[in-house]
Amino acid sequence: MAPYLARHPESAPEFTTGSRAPVERLYSAVDRSGADEERDLGYPGAYPFTRGPYPTMYRGKLWTMRQYAGFGTAAESNRRYHYLLGQGQTGLSVAFDLCTQIGYDSDHAMARGEVGKVGVAISTIEDMETLLAGLPLETISTSMTINSTASTLLALYLVVARRRGVAWTALRGTVQNDILKEYVARGTYIYPPGPSMRLITDMFAFCAKEVPEWNPISISGYHIREAGSTAAQEIAFTLADGIAYVQAALDAGLDIDAFAGRLSFFFNAHNDLLEEVAKFRAARRLWAQIMRERFGAKRPASWALRFHAQTAGVTLTAQQPENNVVRVTIQALAAVLGGAQSLHTNSRDEALSLPTEEAARIALRTQQILAHESGVAHTIDALGGSYAIETLTDRLDAEARALIAAVDARGGMVGAIEQGWVQRQIQDAAYDLQKEIDTGARVVVGVNRYRDDTANGVPIMRVDPKLEREQVERVRRFRAQREPGAVRASLDWLRRAAVSDENLMPALVECVDRNVTLGEIADALREIFGEYHENVVV
Amino acid sequence: MTSEARRIRVLVAKPGLDGHDRGAKFIARAFKEAGMEVIYTGIRQTPEAIVTAAIQEDVDAIGLSILSGAHRELFPDIMQRLRDQGAGDILVFAGGVIPDEDREFCRKLGVGAVFGPGTSADEAIEFVRTHVRPA
After folding, report:
1. Over the Cα atoms of chain B, what is R_g?
2. Which residue in A123, A146, A152, A364 has the fewest CB atoms around it within 10 Å?
């Protein structure tokens, strides 16, 4: 080798993954000498689920193509959902505006300029009925990206279903409901960790009994990665969040096998194809072990990690946006080779604005081409057994395990967040990565190499400011027409429940049914629970 | 204090409700490493809070980071408040998800520069160094 290298030196002194981990020239059986195939890989659908959560994977059922969408008013978003379902999309994914996510009605002072911007504005049961008009709630599955106000949004969904005569047992879907990552990466928290965790475990208990097909949480690494973490940190902090939720539910007296099978996960599908495939496999193996060994879960369904994936928004460039279609294709391929249960592919224009209809269609078509033309869905875990993939899987497994131990040593995720430790870990990784891009050590095509300033134009979508004014008026009109006694009585019930240990969900269902608004509910709980203020770490 | 001794003071602020603070935190740290004094507000700041902080901290420049799309409503408010409080000479620049066609809108408001996705920290540092008011 040495004489060859002397004559033909490699192009860089070292090669690294997208997470800046070293990559060897060649992997072989030598790297896997301690491996035990039965123990480390097993079979799809069986412990430790490295190769996939189901025995037949995509041969039985393709992943759900679930494009995250929502903007402007409920009526406008409802039209986009009908369009997407008409184009062959198989599940809904609702994006809410920031006011809805942070518990402000559209007419609140903090809502100015934000109404309907990054998602749909929902303040009232009337908004929710409009959002879901004509959608077959008994057959579709609906995912809602909502966290600190997740209980309220689920209550709204349940009341709409009941009014339409759809049984709650028939409802399928997911609320994100993952507050811990909001404190470290996404920022839509309202209350401090204690009461926030209680809202979550109340929903676990309520769903297990009343809405058994509903996933009451989607434990999300996506935003942790978007905030700049490495792949190993993404696995570790997500699973550590999962550990915190499971522990909180056990502490609240729930039986692990009654809820663990409905825990779902959400990961990023980033640029480094091989590292990402390995990441999904390592996450499944590690979670299976945590659930069986650490928590003593008995049902195989409690051990299996099921996940949604979204391509990495952070990798999209404003420069030469057409190139993003190619990035998204590679990232989506990683998710499919990694065994995702559902997938969102980003649109080419998302570094610039919300997607246009055309851009959203190309993103969906990318998934359909992968599913029906590429052939990669026919074989389960097609890269399994590759020396490189298995070595990467082992490395990520080991790194994530060490990080989880470090979180445990800080009193678990809540403690580690309160100390600012998790935020610091992510920020340091983000800073190092951005530095590499700034110096050109990491190539971003069209940005720090192969620039072409003539190729940057792409049509963008804009939310009409008129929509905000109309929505504000609609909310005010709604409030003026209610029966004030019923509003007061249901809010009183909510307050009583909040100061006791009564499950909050029945009171929330009553509130929204009696026309209490999302902002009023959040305000009532703010008074009792207090508000969380960020521990600013730079 | 002589002008050489005074370090450039920058407020990095996040107006609006979005929690995407990777860019704001990166730029805050890069400015700090470039020798400037940096105050970072944290997320969800109102125009009023940003302007108050800028005046109290006696900053030379304000960097606004926003990705929610609310810049068309919030930037005019911030610029107006700065002028009303006699702080119109503070250099203001912005970053985040701001469409190209809004650059002119921002420029007319008096925002000195808009750094879109893909800008390097050095570009922003150089801009601040060459454009802050003379001490």
Report:
1. 14
2. A364
pLDDT in tens, B35-88: 999 999 999 999 999 999 999 999 999 999 999 889 999 999 999 999 999 999
Low-confidence ranges of chain A (pLDDT < 70): 455-457, 537
pLDDT band for B1, please (50, 70, 90 cuts). Answer: very low
The model's pLDDT over A516-529, given as tens digits with 9 standing for 90+, comes to: 999 999 999 999 99
Tokens of B132: 């802050």
d(CA A88, CA A83): 9
How crowded is residue A510: how many other Cβ atoms within 10 Å of its Cβ?
19
Size of interface A-B (CB pairs under 8 A): 102
Which ipTM score applies to this complex?
A: 0.88
Neighbouring-strand partners of residue B62: B11, B92
Q: Locate all alpha helices (DSSP H) within B34-70, ordered by sequence.
A: 47-56
Report the residue of B26, B33, B66, B102 to disrupt the A interface, i.e. the one with the largest count of A CBs within 10 Å. B26
Q: Are B25 and A430 in contact (CB under 8 A)?
A: yes
| Residue B126 contacts A where some CB pair is shorter than 8 Å | no
Chain B contact set for A444 (CB, 8 A)? 118
Comparing CB atoms, the residue among B38, B69, B120 nearest residue A463 is: B69
pTM of the model: 0.93
Q: Taking CB atoms and an 8 Å cutoff, what residues of chain B touch A98?
A: 16-18, 68
Question: Contacts by A393-399 with C-beta closer than 8 Å and gap 24+?
Answer: A393/A50, A393/A278, A393/A281, A393/A282, A393/A285, A394/A32, A394/A35, A394/A40, A394/A282, A395/A21, A395/A278, A396/A231, A396/A232, A396/A235, A396/A275, A396/A278, A396/A279, A396/A282, A397/A282, A397/A285, A397/A286, A399/A21, A399/A232, A399/A236
- Best of A434, A447, A467 to substitute, by most chain B Cβ atoms within 10 angstroms, is A434
What is the Cα–Cα distance from B116 to B135, expressed in whole angstroms?
28
Token representation of residue B10: 């920058």
Q: Do A117 and A66 meet the contact criterion of CB atoms below 8 Å apart?
A: no
Q: What is the pLDDT of residue A423?
A: 94
Rg (CA), chain A: 23
- DSSP character at residue A62: P
Concatenated DSSP letters of A369-381: HHHHTS-TTSSTT
**A116 is written with which tokens?**
């309907």
Q: Tens of pLDDT along A300-356? A: 999 999 999 999 999 999 999 999 999 999 999 999 999 999 999 999 998 888 888
Q: Which of residues 1-60 of B touch A (CB under 8 A)?
A: 16-22, 25-26, 28-29, 32, 38, 40-44, 46
d(CA A396, CA A224): 16
Q: H helices then E strands: how many in chain A?
A: 22, 10
